[in-house]
Backbone:
């Protein structure tokens, strides 16, 4: 066991605040780091100490040397990377080891192996875990094109180009023909180089319209591994998740098979800490294939927490300190259904374009039974232009899918955010769509339901009234009184 007294959070925004809250509940000290554009950020108010690491934007949150410097300067003996930024960078974990700092996540070797999608697939093959047909890393130049064309001929189209270092839905291209393949391979390499500083590409056979199912796992240094159930992340845009539902609506025997496969995958990889094993599932046959392992906390961890009552970040800290998994299996009964939606300052009708630079003039949040909010928004909050547009994550739980949708609809209607456009009207339209209400969706859902984006833009009367009240408050006079 390693004693942890002070945790540095190597992240920003909503997830930084989420981590800080649990760390403080555990009686530990917290250190936040920030770039200059974040100097007045909401999450900084809750940390015991805050250290500016550079002018930014973004580059300093990605600078390992500056993160380690801040930990040493503050006396932090542990670092939690959150998600995004450096969370899946094995060099941060290695640098922590060298500096004698506890990294709250998997060992560097595990992050490195599972971050390389080809190596990860090879690890799963050794455990007889099914993966979709795929190649190794494609060679450079004409040889790589030849390998790709050969794979397409053998396995048929469509296929997927994937960046070896990809993540978060980036670095993925669907290819429908040999002509398409030849044209897009150089572009895919360029895209991967720009996003990940690594232009290595491999190919997988494309499974059309599957369900995207993930399993939350916890593992300790003694070889104990357990699952916390499944999440359905099928509704996506550009291979990026929009909402997450727990548990997945699959037959009990299929769920159990996926749970046990995820545990086997974690053991084969020598996994330690919290992670997520992801699968593609054929809707008709229930056949499933390994896709990847996310070696970090997931954005959607809240749907698992609200069902199980287990604080995953608390478990991460205990496991990083060398603790043993001591959660009784009987606690893992996922009663009911939970859903998380991401309230972003984006315009869904305009390809989810961010509303950076706009200010939240009025903010009122919902409440009530089984409603959870994780966010950084408040009245007067200015949407950043340099970072992501997430305002707040809304997580809702009910005892049936029908009740969960009813509760989600009510909570969304109770939100009042005036200033930027948000994803709230999009989610409200989703709550009225028949297939969604029946629980029938897959990764092609948005392509098959374009009518969801036809929701009205009318401003509610209460929103107009609240906007007027805010204006009167700001000006100290009623502008419409004369």
Residues:
């Amino acid at each position: 066991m390693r004693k942890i007294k002070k945790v540095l959070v190597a992240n920003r925004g909503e997830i930084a605040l989420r981590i800080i809250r649990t760390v403080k509940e555990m009686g530990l000290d917290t250190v936040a780091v920030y770039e200059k554009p974040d100097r007045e950020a909401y999450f900084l108010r809750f940390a015991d100490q805050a250290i500016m690491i550079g002018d930014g934007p973004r580059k300093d949150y990605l600078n390992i040397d500056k993160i380690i410097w801040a930990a040493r300067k503050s006396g932090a003996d542990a670092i939690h990377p959150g998600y995004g930024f450096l969370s899946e960078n094995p060099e941060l974990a290695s640098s922590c080891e060298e500096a004698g700092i506890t990294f709250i996540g998997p060992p560097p070797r595990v992050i490195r192996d599972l971050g390389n999608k080809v190596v990860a697939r090879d690890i799963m093959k050794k455990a007889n875990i099914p993966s979709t047909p795929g190649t190794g890393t494609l060679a450079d130049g004409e040889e790589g094109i030849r390998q790709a064309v050969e794979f397409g001929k053998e396995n048929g189209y469509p296929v997927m180009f994937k960046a070896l270092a990809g993540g978060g839905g980036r670095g993925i291209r669907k290819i429908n023909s040999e002509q398409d393949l030849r044209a897009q391979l150089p572009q895919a390499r360029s895209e991967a180089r720009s996003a990940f500083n690594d232009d290595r590409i491999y190919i997988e056979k494309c499974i059309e319209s599957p369900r995207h199912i993930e399993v939350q796992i916890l593992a300790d240094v003694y070889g104990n591994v357990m699952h916390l159930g499944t999440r359905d992340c099928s509704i996506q845009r550009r291979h990026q998740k929009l909402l997450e539902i727990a548990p997945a609506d699959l037959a009990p025997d299929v769920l159990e098979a996926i749970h046990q496969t995820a545990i086997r995958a974690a053991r084969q990889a020598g996994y330690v800490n919290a992670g997520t094993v992801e699968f593609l599932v054929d809707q008709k046959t229930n056949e499933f294939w390994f896709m990847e392992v996310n070696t970090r906390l997931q954005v959607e961890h809240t749907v698992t927490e609200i069902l199980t009552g287990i604080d995953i970040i608390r478990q991460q800290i205990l496991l990083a300190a060398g603790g043993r998994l001591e959660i009784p299996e009987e606690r893992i009964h996922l009663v009911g259904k939970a859903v998380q939606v991401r309230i972003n300052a984006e315009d869904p009708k305009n390809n989810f374009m961010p509303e950076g630079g706009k200010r939240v003039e009025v903010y009122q949040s919902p409440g009530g039974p089984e409603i959870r909010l994780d966010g950084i928004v408040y009245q007067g909050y200015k949407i950043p232009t340099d970072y992501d547009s997430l305002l707040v994550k809304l997580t809702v739980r009910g005892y049936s899918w029908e009740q969960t949708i009813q509760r989600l609809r009510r909570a969304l209607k109770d939100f009042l955010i005036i200033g930027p456009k948000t994803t709230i009207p999009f989610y409200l339209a989703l709550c009225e769509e028949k297939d969604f209400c029946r629980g029938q969706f897959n990764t092609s859902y948005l392509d098959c339901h374009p009518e969801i984006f036809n929701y009205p833009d009318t401003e509610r009367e209460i929103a107009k009234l609240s906007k007027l009240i805010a204006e009167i408050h700001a000006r100290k006079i009623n502008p419409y009184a004369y």
Summary: The radius of gyration is 23 Å. The first strand starts at residue 6 and ends at 9. The domain at 6-104 is CATH 3.40.50.20 (Rossmann fold).
